Amino acid sequence: MSKSPDSLRILLAEDNEPMRTYLTRALENAGYDVTGVACGTEAVPLLSEGFDLLLSDIVMPEMDGIELAQRCSEVSPGTKVIFITGFAAVTLKASREQPQAKVLSKPFHLKDLVMEVERVFEGDAAMSL
Q1: Minimal CA–CA distance to 75: which of 100, 99, 51?
Q2: Which 8-state DSSP code applies to residue 14?
Q3: Which of 27, 47, 101, 124 has the fewest CB atoms inside 10 Å of its own CB, making it the most exposed?
Q4: Candidates 3.20.20.70, 3.30.420.10, 3.40.50.2300, 3.40.50.720; correct CATH number of 5-120?
Q5: C-alpha to C-alpha distance for 28 and 12, rounded to whole angstroms
Q6: If you compute the radius of gyration of the chain from its CA atoms, what whole number of angstroms results?
Q7: Rounded to whole angstroms, how far apart are CA atoms 122 and 128?
Q8: Whole-angstrom Cα distance, residue 116 to residue 129?
Q9: d(Cα 11, Cα 17) in Å, to the nearest integer?
Q10: CA torsion, points 104, 72, 14, 3, in degrees to nearest 10?
C-alpha cells in the first residue's frame, strides 16, 4: 500500500531563501509535509527523523548536496534523493556519485518538480503491490 502525499515527508536543503520558500510552498500545495533548511549541515541532524525524500541543491556552502546525500544513505538508507542544480557540470558529478538519485536542472517548472517527486514515490507503490 502506498502512502498518500500528505503522509510523505520531504527534507528540502536549498541555500537560496526565495527558492527554498517557493519550492516549499509548491510541495506543500501538492500535499507534502516539507521541512526546509538553508544548508547541508542544518539537514544532517534531521536525517534520522524518517524523511521519505531528500530534495537538495547540489552547490551549497559548508556541505554540498552530494556529501549530504552520502550522509543520508548512511543514516537513512530508505530515503529517496532528488538533486536540483543550475550547473550542468555538477549534474554529471551527481549522476556519477549518486547514480540512484534523480537530478533536476534549474530552471524547472514547479509542475515538473511535483511530477518528479510523484514519480519517485510511484516506484515505491509499484514495488509494494
Answers
A1: 51
A2: -
A3: 124
A4: 3.40.50.2300
A5: 12
A6: 13
A7: 10
A8: 20
A9: 15
A10: 70
Every domain of the chain and the residues it spans: 5-120
Q: Is the dihedral of CA 37, 42, 46, 51 positive or negative?
A: positive
Q: What is the pLDDT of residues 52-96, one digit of tens each?
A: 999 999 999 999 999 999 999 999 999 999 999 887 777 777 777
Of 80, 87, 81, 82, the residue nearest 107 (C-alpha): 87
pLDDT score recorded for residue 127: 47
Q: Which three cell numbers stand for residue 6?
A: 500528505
* Cis check: omega of the bond before 107, within 30 degrees of 0: yes
Give the model's pLDDT for residue 8: 93
**Cβ neighbours of residue 54 under 8 Å, at least 6 residues apart?**
10, 11, 13, 43, 47, 68, 69, 72, 79, 80, 81, 82
| Cα within 13 Å of Cα(29), Cβ side | 10
